[in-house]
Design brief:
718 residues; alpha+beta; 5-stranded antiparallel β-sheet; 17 helices; 25% strand; disordered N terminus
Length: 718
């Protein structure tokens, strides 16, 4: 069979573009593995074309047979120096080990299907272990028996600058941005590293610093290999001496400048300390280094960090290459600063979100919560929030919400709604009344004319408020468009609570609906789960199926299980692998008060009610073995509250006394709707005298509203 290649073969066409002539003999094509030599001279090469400028050539070509072995090549341009293609050797020998399976699969696909694979960015491995970045195209030969032609375009100079610019800045993660820069810099050297000011990592503003105080942390290092002991790898802090020397190197004459240290002797003389040399010099072969500062333009300019490109001793940096390096790093500096700003915003929002998480549930409720932000490549931390806090009247509030959007706008709305809900609940408002106020707040936040929106809309946010009464063991709940809580009863029955759907906060007037109030029993041992949609939403399941999975997971929590560990397990079981939204879960295990720690009396609103109340309370305090001032103060306190109820309200009066860990809580409920207020008058002033007594006897007191009237509560220390 004639193995002479056709004049129009891809190999000949690419070779002619190199300005060289490949001899048309068949010897190279017929060369088999047994005839292959270890020297590059074994491969047929054309004589040099004097008109060709080898420094400017970036194109090479390799021909392969059906077994993907090299039959001929033209890699004479200087940019391909160090590659060792040997006739009969496998093309895979030119690839990094990790790339061999992928590239081999592409080569065989082109060989079998006959369709070219064009312009794939690929790395080639030189004989010394360094790598060259190329654009690789795989072309089928005119005849199948002639194998493949692989054309290589070295990603250098302007071409590489363009490719690098499109790759850098696609992520707002600092580490990924630095890694993209380091990978692009590798085209100019054997090792590339990026070291950033520590303030960049924390998201702080980078300011002018004295040369002796700069602190650098390694952000990226390529290629990925085993490095000598003591060498600084990503995540490690550079020694203080090294940071100071690099700062001095790039800030000559108080202006950030790129510098080149041409040889190993100069490098060691500059670094001085053997410890610093081990930390910065990647190996014995590394001799010259170019240090290019990442600079933000300004007056004065601000240095974010330093990029370093290392080369072997026999390959010095040309002026044109140094200009290209400076241009690429300059284009990257603003991407690094954008990542820094994103990191600062992310840190601030996350700190706010962590601050809103409940700390503990107190004596009557055990609380566990998990907040898991979305994946780092999301637009930022979302607006999910959850909170739990004891109310002054002995109840506990459980609040969960989901504010539309991500970032600082969502965080600001989230913080405002959370704090407003806490203040209104502490003031005694019912859950539905609190949601009405939050609805107005969301509408206000969307009013661009007020200047509060700043391009952000919170319309459509959701919220669910649950109040747990540890005496009656009941939960009162209102929801604004939020997913229903899941309740697990002590007998193991689990399921979502029946809550009427609602359009959410800030809905248009035509869609606005009243907020319903739901009351349900939650006996001691019950488990209540409040959550946001990120936990139960799955593209493969309906939302009802997701909630069902949550109910099943929560029902598996044993009463003896540590609640925080159980909450983490539920989230790890249900949360999607790749989150598109934040995940929030609040578990509340109901404990309540023991029956012997509470007492309730119901009296008619008559003149003898205060005396009867004092008698009931005094007898109870004796049974509780109450001593000290509380034994005398509490009967007087209850008497004054009942007197106020008889005087200003009608209907039956309910008295409730609760023995808590830190004191005694007294409650007097009536059917009146007037709000008791402490007047400026003194004890001798008949109007409001009772409230002055209440104020002096208690550590705190207040009012909460009910469907039938109000409850005045007061706490006395024991």
């Amino acid at each position: 069979m004639d193995s002479t290649p056709s004049p129009s073969s891809p190999f000949e066409l690419v070779s002619s573009a190199l300005g060289r002539y490949i001899p048309r003999g068949g010897s190279a094509a017929a060369t088999g593995p047994d005839d292959a030599q270890d020297d590059r001279a074994a491969l047929p090469r054309a004589p040099d074309n004097p008109a060709a400028d080898r420094h400017d050539q970036i194109l090479g070509v390799v021909n392969l047979d059906g077994d993907l072995r090299i039959t001929r090549c033209n890699l004479d341009a200087d940019v391909f120096a160090g590659l060792d293609p040997v006739a009969g050797s496998a093309f895979a020998d030119l690839l990094p080990p990790g790339d061999i399976p992928t590239v081999t699969r592409r080569l065989r696909q082109v060989l079998e299907i006959g369709e070219a694979h064009v312009a794939r960015i690929q790395r080639l491995r030189r004989g010394d272990g360094s790598e060259l970045v190329v654009s690789m195209s795989i072309l089928p030969a005119a005849a199948p028996q002639e194998g493949l032609t692989v054309s290589l375009i070295a990603m250098a100079r302007r071409l590489h600058l363009y490719a690098a610019e499109t790759a850098i800045g696609t992520s707002l993660d600092i580490g990924e941005t630095a890694q993209s820069l380091a990978e692009s810099l590798l085209a100019w050297g054997d090792v590339a590293a990026v070291d950033l000011d520590f303030a960049v990592w924390t998201g702080e503003g980078v300011t002018e610093q004295t040369q002796g105080r700069i602190r650098l942390r390694r952000a990226a290092l390529v290629p990925d290999r085993v490095w000598p002991e003591g060498y600084v790898t990503p995540g490690g802090d550079l020694p203080s001496d090294a940071s100071r020397l690099l700062a001095q190197a790039v800030r000559r004459d108080d202006a950030p400048q790129a510098i080149v240290i041409p040889d190993r002797e100069a490098v060691e003389r500059l670094l001085g300390s053997p410890r610093v040399i081990r930390a910065l010099v990647p190996g014995d072969r590394s001799a010259g280094v170019a240090c290019i500062p990442l600079v933000l333009d300004g007056a004065p300019p601000v240095v974010l960090g330093v990029a370093e490109v290392w080369r072997r001793a026999d390959s010095s940096f040309r002026d044109s290459e140094l200009i290209d390096l400076q241009e690429l790093v300059a284009r990257t500096a603003h991407h690094v600063d954008l990542a820094r700003q994103h990191q600062r915003e992310h840190t601030q929002v996350l700190a706010l979100q962590r601050r809103l998480l409940p700390r503990s549930g107190g004596d009557t409720l055990e609380i566990a919560s998990v907040y898991q932000p979305a994946t780092p490549d999301s637009a930022g931390v979302g607006g999910d929030w959850v909170n739990s806090f004891p109310l002054p009247d002995g109840r506990t509030a459980l609040v969960v919400g989901d504010v539309v959007g991500h970032g600082l706008g969502a965080a600001a709305a989230m913080g405002q709604l959370s704090m407003e809900a806490r203040a209104l609940l502490s003031a005694g408002l019912a859950p539905d009344e609190v949601l009405e106020h939050l609805d107005e707040t969301v509408t206000l936040l969307d009013d661009a004319e007020s200047g509060l929106a700043a391009g952000y809309s919170a319309l459509g946010s959701t919220c669910c408020i649950a109040l747990y009464d540890p005496v009656s063991h009941q939960v009162t709940l209102s929801s604004a468009g939020h997913l229903p809580p899941v309740l697990v009863l002590p007998d193991g029955h689990a399921g979502p609570l029946t809550v009427r759907p609602h359009p959410g906060l800030g809905a248009e007037f035509a869609l606005r609906e009243p907020f319903d109030v739901h009351t349900f029993g939650a006996p001691p041992g019950s488990l209540l789960a409040l959550y946001t949609d990120g936990l139960v939403e799955d593209r493969a399941l309906s939302i009802d199926e997701g909630i069902g999975r949550l109910a099943e997971a929560v029902s598996a929590v044993h009463p003896w299980d540590a609640l925080q560990q159980a909450a983490r397990h539920v989230v790890s079981t249900l949360a999607p692998v790749r989150q598109r939204d934040d995940v929030t879960l609040l578990l509340a295990r109901m404990i309540g008060y023991r029956k012997g720690d509470t007492a309730t009396w119901r009296l008619p609103a008559r003149d003898d009610a205060p005396a009867r109340a004092r008698a009931h309370v005094s007898a109870l305090l004796r049974r509780w073995h109450t001593t000290g001032h509380a034994r005398d103060d509490v009967p007087l306190l209850v008497s004054e509250l009942v007197t106020n109820a008889v005087r200003f309200a009608a209907g039956p009066i309910t008295i409730r006394l609760i023995r808590a860990r830190h004191g005694l809580l007294c409650e007097v409920g009536d059917t009146g709707n007037g709000r008791p207020r402490l007047s400026p008058g003194g004890l001798l002033d008949d109007g409001g005298r009772g409230l002055h007594i209440v104020h002096r006897l208690t550590t705190r007191w207040g009012v909460r509203w009910t469907d039938t009237g109000k409850v005045v509560w007061a706490e006395v220390a024991r």
